[in-house]
Amino acid sequence: MFAQRPTVAAATALILLSIAACSPESGPTLAAPDAYAQAQAGQLTLIDIRRPDEWRQTGVAAGALRINMVHPQGGSGFVQQVVAELGGDRDAPIGIICRTGNRTTRMQQALHEAGFTRVYNIKEGMVGSSAGPGWIARGLPVEACPRC
Question: Which listed residue, of 13, 33, 44, 109, carries a Cα 20 to 30 Å from 91's Cα?
Answer without folding.
Answer: 33
